[in-house]
C-alpha cells in the first residue's frame, strides 16, 4: 500500500512517549487536505474534495504540545462555506481522546482525483475513532441557510462526516515530516494525551461570537425542532431582488378610475342626504326654501373640500410612489455595490488564505530542511570526531618516526665509527694475504 507505514492497534500496550528533540515536540502545522470517510451500511466511500467557493481549499491543522507534565494534541479541519447569513468557516474537531487508533502512510497510493487536487507525493492519516468527530458551526445562528446548492451539499457531507468513525486525511507530502508523524503517533499511542485547551474554547471562534457543536436534524421530528427554535429567528431580511413588485402607481391625470368614482361617490352621498331630508315629511314652504338653498350651498362646499382633499391625497401618494421608486433604485445600486465589495473582499480573503497556505507550505519545507540540517550537523559532528582521532594518530606516528630517525642516526654514527676503527686492521690483513699469495705463487713457479 505504501513505502513506509506506521500503525497503532487499540490492543497494543501504550509505550512511554518521550520526545527529547524540542524542535519536534511542540509544533502547529496546517496544509491543504482532502477527506475520505466510511459509513456503516454504505458500500462506497465518501469524499470531500473542495469547499465553497471551489477556488479555496480544505485545511487540515494539527497542534502538538509536549512538556514535562502532560501531552497535548488536537486535530481539526477547516471548511469554507457560503451561507445566506455570510461566508464563514465550519470546523471538524478531532480530540485525541476520541482516537482509538492512528496510522500514517508516506507516498500512499491515492485515487487519480486526489492526486489531481494535491500532488504526486501524498501522505495519508488514517483515523479509527472511538467517538465521532464534532462539527462546529457559528453559535449565533440557530439554522444554517446555504446560499447555493454547493454549500448545501458540503454541509450535508460534513454532517455525514461527523457520524463516521473511520476517516482518512490526504495531505501533500511536504506538510508533515516523518519525525513529526512519528511524534503524533507516539502521543496518540500514549493513551494519556489531552486536547489542547485553546482549541476547546469554542467561545473564541468566529471573531468572539462563539461556536457550538452542530447535530444533524432528525427529519422525523422536524416539527419539534421548529417549535424549539423557529427557522425565522435565524433568517436575514430578504434581499432586494427577492422582494415582489409594489402596488401599481396611479396615473398623474385626474382620469384615474378610482379617483373619478370617489368624486361621484361624494356627490351621490350629498344628493342622497338631501333626498332623505325631503322624504322626512317636511313641506316645502316659502319660509323653508331659503334654508334649503343654504343647505345645498353648504353641501356643495363640503363636496368641493372633499374633492380638494382627494386631489391632495392623490398628489401625496404620487410623490410617495415616486420617492419609493427612487429609493428602490438607490437600494438596488447600493446592493450591487455591496455585492461587488463582498466579491472583492472574498477575493482578498482568498488571496490572504492562499498566502497563508503558501506560508504554511514554506514553513513546512523549512521545518523539513531544519530536520535535514540537524541530521547533517550530527553527521558533521561525527566527522569532526573522526578527524580529531586521525589527528591524534598522526601525532603518535610523528613521535614514532622521530624516534626511528634518532635510532637510524645513532646506527649510522656507529657504522662510521666502526669503519674508522677497522681500516688499519683491514689494511694489515690485506697485506698479509697478498704476501702469502705471492709466496705460494713463487714456490709454485720454482718447483720443477
Plain-language structure description:
There is one protein chain. The chain is α+β, with helices and mostly antiparallel strands. It has a domain at 4-214. It has 8 helices and 12 strands. It has helices at residues 22-25, 112-117, 149-161, 178-189, 197-200, 222-228, 257-278, 289-446; strands spanning 4-6, 27-38, 46-48, 58-66, 71-82, 87-94, 99-106, 122-129, 134-138, 166-172, 194-195, 211-213. Strands 1, 2, 3, 4, 5, 6, 7, 8, 9, 10, 11 and 12 form a 12-stranded mixed sheet that branches. Helix 7 runs antiparallel to helix 8. It is rod-shaped, with a radius of gyration of 51 Å. The termini are far apart. Residues 1-23 and 218-294 have low confidence and may be disordered.
Keywords:
alpha+beta, 12 strands, about 450 residues
Cα-atom radius of gyration: 51 Å
Major sheet size, sense and barrel closure: 12 strands, mixed
- DSSP strand tally: 12
* Count of runs of 4 or more consecutive helical residues: 8
Order of helices and strands: EHEEEEEEHEEHEHEHEHHH
Q: Mean of the pLDDT scores?
A: 76
Report the sheet-strand fraction. Answer: 15-25%
The share of residues in helices is 40-55%
Unreliable runs:
1-23, 218-294
Distance between the termini: 114 Å
- Global morphology: rod-shaped
Amino acid at each position: 500500500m505504501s513505502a513506509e507505514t506506521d500503525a497503532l492497534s487499540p490492543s497494543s500496550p501504550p509505550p512511554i512517549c518521550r520526545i527529547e528533540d524540542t524542535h519536534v515536540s511542540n509544533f502547529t502545522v496546517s496544509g491543504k487536505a482532502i477527506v475520505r470517510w466510511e459509513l456503516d451500511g454504505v458500500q462506497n466511500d465518501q469524499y470531500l474534495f473542495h469547499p465553497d467557493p471551489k477556488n479555496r481549499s480544505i485545511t487540515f491543522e494539527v497542534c502538538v504540545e509536549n512538556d514535562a507534565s502532560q501531552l497535548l494534541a488536537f486535530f481539526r479541519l477547516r471548511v469554507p462555506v457560503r451561507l445566506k447569513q455570510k461566508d464563514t468557516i465550519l470546523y471538524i474537531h478531532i480530540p485525541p481522546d476520541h482516537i482509538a487508533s492512528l496510522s500514517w502512510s508516506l507516498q500512499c497510493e491515492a485515487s487519480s482525483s486526489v492526486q489531481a487536487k494535491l500532488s504526486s507525493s501524498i501522505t495519508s492519516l488514517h483515523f479509527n475513532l472511538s467517538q465521532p468527530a464534532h462539527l462546529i458551526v457559528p453559535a449565533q445562528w440557530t439554522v444554517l441557510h446555504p446560499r447555493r446548492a454547493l454549500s448545501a451539499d458540503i454541509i450535508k457531507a460534513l454532517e455525514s462526516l461527523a457520524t463516521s468513525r473511520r476517516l482518512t486525511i490526504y495531505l501533500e507530502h511536504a506538510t508533515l515530516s516523518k519525525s513529526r508523524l512519528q511524534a503524533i503517533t507516539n502521543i496518540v499511542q500514549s493513551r494519556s494525551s489531552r486536547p489542547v485547551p485553546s482549541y476547546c474554547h469554542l467561545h473564541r471562534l468566529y471573531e468572539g461570537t462563539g461556536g457550538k457543536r452542530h447535530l444533524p436534524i432528525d427529519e422525523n421530528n422536524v416539527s419539534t425542532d421548529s417549535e424549539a427554535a423557529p427557522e425565522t429567528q435565524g433568517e436575514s431580511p430578504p434581499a432586494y431582488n427577492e422582494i415582489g413588485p409594489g402596488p401599481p402607481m396611479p396615473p398623474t391625470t385626474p382620469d384615474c378610475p378610482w379617483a373619478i368614482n370617489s368624486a361621484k361617490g361624494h356627490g351621490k352621498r350629498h344628493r342622497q342626504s338631501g333626498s332623505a331630508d325631503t322624504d322626512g315629511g317636511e313641506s316645502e314652504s316659502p319660509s323653508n326654501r331659503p334654508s334649503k338653498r343654504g343647505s345645498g350651498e353648504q353641501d356643495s362646499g363640503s363636496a368641493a373640500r372633499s374633492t380638494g382633499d382627494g386631489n391632495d391625497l392623490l398628489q401625496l401618494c404620487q410623490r410617495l410612489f415616486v420617492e419609493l421608486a427612487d429609493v428602490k433604485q438607490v437600494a438596488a445600486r447600493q446592493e450591487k455595490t455591496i455585492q461587488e465589495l463582498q466579491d472583492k473582499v472574498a477575493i482578498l480573503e482568498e488571496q490572504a488564505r492562499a498566502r497563508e497556505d503558501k506560508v504554511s507550505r514554506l514553513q513546512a519545507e523549512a521545518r523539513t530542511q531544519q530536520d535535514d540540517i540537524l541530521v547533517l550537523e550530527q553527521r558533521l559532528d561525527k566527522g569532526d570526531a573522526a578527524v580529531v582521532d586521525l589527528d591524534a594518530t598522526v601525532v603518535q606516528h610523528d613521535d614514532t618516526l622521530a624516534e626511528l630517525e634518532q635510532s637510524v642516526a645513532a646506527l649510522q654514527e656507529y657504522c662510521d665509527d666502526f669503519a674508522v676503527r677497522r681500516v688499519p686492521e683491514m689494511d694489515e690483513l690485506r697485506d698479509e694475504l697478498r704476501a702469502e699469495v705471492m709466496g705460494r705463487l713463487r714456490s709454485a713457479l720454482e718447483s720443477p
